Amino acid sequence: MSADMNRQMSHQSEASSMGSDCDSSEDLDEDTEKFYYIDTTDDLDLDCPSKTDDPEYFEYEPLQLIDAERMMNEEIEALCMKLKVNPSTAKMLLLRHNWKKEEIIDNYQRDPSGFLVDTHLASRRKHDNLVGQRPVCSVCCSEYARDRFVGVACGHMFCRDCWDMHFQTQIRDGVTTGIECMAKECPVLVTEDFVYKVLSDSKLRDKYSKFSFNDLIKSHPKLRFCPGADCSVIIKAKELKAKKVECHSCKITFCFKCGLSYHAPTECDVIKRWLTKCEDDSETANYISAHTKDCPKCHVCIEKNGGCNHMQCPECKYDFCWMCLGDWKSHGSEYYECSRYKENPNIANESVHVQAREALKKYLFYYERWENHAKSLQLEETTTSKITARIQEKVMNNQGTWIDWQYLLKAAALLKKCRYTLQYTYPYAYYLDNRKDLFEYQQAQLEAEVENLSWKVERAEITDRGELENQMDVAEKRRLTLLKDFLEV
Length: 489
Hints:
Blueprint: H1 2-9, E1 60-63, H2 65-83, H3 87-96, H4 101-110, H5 119-129, E2 149-151, E3 157-159, H6 160-172, H7 192-198, H8 202-219, E4 223-225, E5 234-237, E6 244-246, E7 253-255, H9 268-280, E8 292-294, E9 301-303, E10 310-312, E11 319-321, H10 352-396, H11 406-423, H12 425-431, H13 436-458, H14 465-486
Antiparallel strand pairs: 1-5, 2-3, 4-5, 6-7, 8-9, 10-11
């Protein structure tokens, strides 16, 4: 087994060792290696949330490839000893049954034939399949000596050349651990030791080793490859949950359960449906992607160059909402309605065409807000750069130290964190049926506080520090309240 894994390891680059920004204040199990809680706040010294306070808390650790190899080897060896099977067979069983060792052992003890073909049956099939002094391969229809025929546990026998060609074709198509017997409708999987024994192309052997190792990682419920480009880090967690993981090697943030960009409070299946819908309807939604709108009062064209939706016309000084173009005075935290879609109460009685238009209207309502927050997040990066430049200027002019102005960077980091969560509330709301009123109420509160924070951050030099820090506290509490009530645990 170690030789197989060493062969696999030769095709993987060694992962970077990663640290942690803050350690859990909770004591972990003695039998478990140290896990980390990592928070995406641009390495600022914010307080580390406790397990009970933060609904996004998740224990995980980064592994090097050699550590992941050792962990899987131990599980494979344990199954080998329990079932008295070879490592290749144990690996195949673990892959097919998602590494559920107890389930495999229990089912095998009740019915061994359900997992491994009985050796007498295999021998009989071998005898039935090879008739005559020079039997014929049923694939290539050529005669060979008996020693040219080989087979797997099911007993189906074919010539080595046909097996070799079968393996080469499958591996080139990206199939490795899922290679099945060549016999018609035979679902028996081919073990890797048999592949190595027959496969003649050394380059394809290397490719098989690499891909089969990847299959082992992907199938393991406690392991996940970092989806970052050219990143070889493997994340290990205690449980398979839709929680946030930040890779310290490539800096991306993703969901441990599905591997997509982190998407709380939206569930994995819902965000997949939403992204598919956005992709399918992308042409329909193109018309709302413009960066300019007319002032609703003086009609001058205005370009949005910041993340804040609170706009002020440079000509008439009218304060309005970028999303609905309404008077900003009506957008207090208690009356914020831009995030709430108003359904037509009589839509069920309308014609099919009217219902279709209403469905499109609803989708565009949520898509526009989803897309607006995505663009605002990009613009917040510009705001952060401006703040950094201004801090450097102030420090150079002896207007305080770098530490004195760190609260501005903390505010910008928290704003991005809140807006990121807010962006993913819209796919959630689009598909939501239950508790819709409560969710929309909390979403509206978060939306209002995020816009207030954004307004203050963009005007940080004229905003009192205490006022800004108070707004930060309110916005983060709104965000955590929503996640505690609606984030899938």
